[in-house]
Amino acid sequence: MSKLVRQWIPFIIFLPASIIVLLGYLMPVPGLLYLRDKLVEWATIVAAFALLLGTFNIIHVHVGQIRRRSRGWFSSFVLLLTLLIGMIPPLLPEGTSLRSDLNRAVLDYVLRPVGAALAALIFFTLALAAFRLLRTRHTVASVLFLLVVILVLAGSVPLEGMEQLTLWRAAIIHVPAMAGARGLLLGVALGTVIAALRLIIGGERPYSEP
Amino acid sequence: MEVEAIVLLLLSGLVLMILLILRGKKGPAPSVRQLPAFQKMPREMEYAAESGTAVHIALGSRSLYEDDALVSLAGLQVLTSLADAAVSFSAPPIVTVGDPTLLPLAQDMLRRAYERHNRLEAYNPANVRFIAPTPLAYAAGAAQTIATGGVTANFIAGAFESEVSLIANSGIRRDLPQLSAVTTPAAAGALYPVSDHLAVGEELYAAAAQITGERRYLLSLVAQDVIRVVLVSAIAGVALFSILTG
């Protein structure tokens, strides 16, 4: 009985669901489309519950860190405090101006600036990584990588008398970089097809006991 | 039915056929190309166990119901493949996820490994951590986990973009060995300078075969390689034909 519940019932649910969704995309027949959309809708509902699970996980992990006074416990405290404060606006009566003002304030003064700051930070981490490459790895590939990075960056700047750089930049982006990216995507698509087939034929069952 | 659908069905049929032919063959496991990014992971896990610390595994921030679902699943496969080694070395990994749908699956995979080794009492679900539902916030949170979590190696496997450099940068600052497997050009570009070993593109799907060496995974990898040669030959053939016919 246990084997049936843990092994076969998930597979019995998974198999028709996956085939219906796949066929729904390949053959847009009205009946199949209806079933496909319903299944995708259910997946979205389940995902919403997963967010709840995720929130409990955050609370569990960070309360544990505060209790143990682990390294970085103060960050955990700030995170939990922010989580609690973030819960206030949705709890206020719907349609009130206070609720919408608080929501907008959180978005305008916290989420957007922090997001923008993090996005800006990426540039520095990338530059730091390139600099580190210069110090630690002395190979032809590394030198080529850095040369291309410098060329593409310099080609993005509208410098007078250096129009040639812009042409080189365009040539790099449109020929070798594009070919590489397409090759990468083709490989990923192939790997995805094989992984999906392994799932459908039951060769891989992440959703149940093996 | 559209052309893409027909091509996909034909490709799927071809893959299935090769998989079935290979499965039917007896004999030793096929030899496959070596990918150091995955082969070094169990060794790093062993070092972590010896030093009484843990490794960090970042699984990315794409959900299981979006386009990148299978990339995320491939990342989870890295965790599955390493989970047994982690439990046997008593070095539970700290796993961070950036989408809540990955959380129960990652927890379940780790729990199953403990169950297989009859050590369920040692399983701690808090070792799998949901950080934040947006890629940037996730990357920043995972970087903080590396900085404060006392980890001795950083594994990155899953769906990422350039934000992954925040995670990698945190690893550099602590001078950790970094092994990565990503599928997008942006993430590959961000990780190339800072990873000790990097697996790119479809190599992520080779993780289970490389880490576990199990026959079923090796067969999938061989099938993938065969199809790739077929596809590349077809593309080259069509290109050559177009050039010749003007």
H/E topology pattern of chain B: HHHEHEHEHEHEHEHH
Give the C-alpha Rg of chain A. 26 Å
Uncertain segments of chain B of ≥5 residues (pLDDT<50)?
A: none
Question: How far is it from the N-terminal to the C-terminal residue of chain B, by CA?
Answer: 30 Å
Q: Widest sheet of chain B: strand order?
A: 3-2-1-4-5-6
How would you sum up the major sheet of chain A? Answer: none
Strand tally of chain B = 6
Q: Helix segment count of chain A?
A: 6
Mean pLDDT score of chain A, rounded?
Answer: 85
Helix content of chain A: over 70%
Shape of chain A: extended
Radius of gyration of chain B: 19 Å
Number of beta strands of chain A? 0
Please describe what this structure looks like.
The complex is a heterodimer of chains A (210) and B (246). Chain A is mainly alpha-helical and 210 residues long. Chain A is built from six helices and no strands. Chain A has helices at 2-26, 30-67, 73-91, 97-136, 140-156, 163-200. The radius of gyration of chain A is 26 Å and the shape is extended. Chain A starts with a helix and ends in a 10-residue tail after the last helix. Chain B has a six-stranded parallel sheet, sandwiched between helices. In chain B, helix 5 (102-116) links the parallel strand 2 (94-97) and strand 3 (128-130). Chain B has ten helices and six strands, in the order H-H-H-E-H-E-H-E-H-E-H-E-H-E-H-H. With 246 residues, chain B is α/β, with parallel strands linked by helices. The interface between A and B is large, with 64 and 70 residues.
